[in-house]
Every structure is written in structure tokens, then in C-alpha cells.
Amino acid sequence: MLQRTFAALRHKTRTWARKRHGIDSDPLTLSGRRIYIVPSALGIAFALMLFAMFLGAMNYANNLALGLTFMLGALALTAMHYCHRNLAGVQIRSAACEPVFAGQTARFRIALENDAKVARYELVIANEYGIAQPARIESGARVVLDLEVPAPQRGSLQLDSFEITTRHPFGLFRAWAYLNMDVRCVVYPKPGPRGLPPPPLETDTGGAQDTRRGDEDFAGLRAFHAGDSPRRIAWKVYAREQGLQVKVYAGTAVTSHSFDWEGLPGLGTEARLSQLCRWIEDAYAAGRAFGLRLPGVEIAPNVGPGHRQRCLTALALFDEQAANG
């Protein structure tokens, strides 16, 4: 019950901070005005101990005990200053986030950089789903921490507000700042079950060719498409400022699929996307070329990880592309 109360209170606080500060820039240098600081549970116990020591010293007129009390109080105030300074000036930016399939866990990578002349200690980033390991950042150094977020459905998954905290030194105070960056991760559809056979194979004699099959007779050049292998690019032609061209070789028949949205009648939107995702994954694993046709989107047959990523991204963002189209 107590945990639920604290979780609800923290959610309301994050919502309030988001309305107050809006969307943060990327990268962001954390200013002192964005940092909140309160005593921790240990700090409250320490304050109660100092109060008891003060009453005892006053009651017995013990100057030594009174001096010790004031010295410990000054230590606590110094710790509060250092705790706040440990966060101020830290630069925060988003790093690459690898796409995932629906039902998996997305890992948002957050980079922390320290341009100050002093090191930063025990920096932690956290969200409502978990907390990263405390990190120490030396002067001029950079660390990358991961935040995990469940990805229950396909599309563009946005990282909700997260916080950066520290309790250094001594753990008497907790300083933190809420951050609201526009950081997103592409979530592919969950591949459908195996069983439904893919469309019949087609033959491509040079348009979409796997470089592992070797070079046959040179047949000419064609325009570069996303997903083409860099090994096929005609760099000499590009150096002559004639555009980015790809070498085409004839004599090798390449089997390819054309995965068409209209080839799955009777299925709902998500079921079609899942089945197309399954066919793409199977064709990529088998090394076969494949193309994709969606309403408003047509991707020519090709091979390679870049081509796979382009097709899966088209499936993940199907609704957004349809709306823009």
C-alpha cells in the first residue's frame, strides 16, 4: 500500500515537472535551477540525532558536546552543497536505441558527459520501470547507461520522463532532476507464426544480388537504393561527381519474394503486418532477396541488413505512413 502511494505521488510529480519544463533539448546541460534536493531517510535520522545532541548539550551546559553538534551540522550543510553540485553541469544526451519487436523490452541508451574539472560520483538514471547502476564520471569522460521500457505494441515508442539522481556524499541528501527528452525507439510488429507459405519466388538477374554469391559479368550501373551493399557502389563514378551508382552484374539468377499487403485478404491490419514481418525474417535468414508492397509504400527487392531494417521499419510505422500519404 505504501509503495503504491509513493509510486502515485512520484507519477504526479513527474507529470507536474513535464508541464512546467516542457520537452528538453537533446543534448541538455543540467542547470542548478532544474535540480531538486531533499534530505534522505538517513539525513532525517541524522538531523534528529543532531537535535537530540543539541538538547543534551544545552541541558548539561557541555561546551564540548555543543561544539561537536555544530561541527556535525556544518558537515551536513557542506554535504548538501556538494550533493547539489554533483549534478549541476552534467550534460545529458540520447544515444542509439536498437529497434525491437513488439513484446520485447526496449533499451534506451542515455549518455552522461562531464566537462567539469572534478569527477562526478554515484550518478543514477531511473524511470518507473527500473533503475540503472550508479556511475562515476571522471573529468572529461562519458558513460552510457540503459533505461528499459516494455514495448507491448509496434510503432514509435517514446521514452517517458526519467530522472537523474545522486546521494553523494554520505547519503544524507537526495538531489534529482526530471528530464523529458523526445527520445524514440522503433518497435517492429511481432512476427506471426510459421505455417502460411510466402508468395511464389521470382527471378532477378542482377537487380537484387547477394555479394556472397560472387561477381559475374558486369552489366552496367543503376541508381543507388537504400540497403545496397557498399561493396557494389561505383566509387570511381561517384568521385567524378556523377552521382551514387551501383554496379550490376548479369549471369546470376537470384530468387526473390514480393511480399504484398493485398496478398493477405481476410486478415486484419495487425495480423497482416505480423505475417509480413514473419516472411521478411524468414527470407532474410535464408539469404533470399525480397521486396515489400504496402498501401502508399513500395520497396524494391534487395538483400542485406539495411534492406531488412527499412522493410521492418515500414511495417512498424504503417499507420503514420498511411496518414502522411
First-residue to last-residue Cα separation: 49 Å
Helix content: 25-40%
How would you describe the oligomerization state of the chains in this entry?
A: single chain
Low confidence ranges: 210-215
Class inferred from helices and paired strands: alpha+beta
- The total beta strand count reads 19
What percentage of the residues does DSSP assign to strands (E)? 25-35%
The coarse silhouette is elongated
Rg to the nearest angstrom?
29 Å
**What is the total number of structural domains?**
2
Pattern of helices and strands: HEEHHEEEEEEEEEEEEEHEEHEEHH
| Main sheet specs | 6 strands, antiparallel
Can you describe this structure?
The chain is α+β, with helices and mostly antiparallel strands. It has 7 helices and 19 strands. α5 links the parallel β17 and β18. α2 runs antiparallel to α3 and α5 runs antiparallel to α6. The protein is elongated. About 2% of the residues have low confidence.
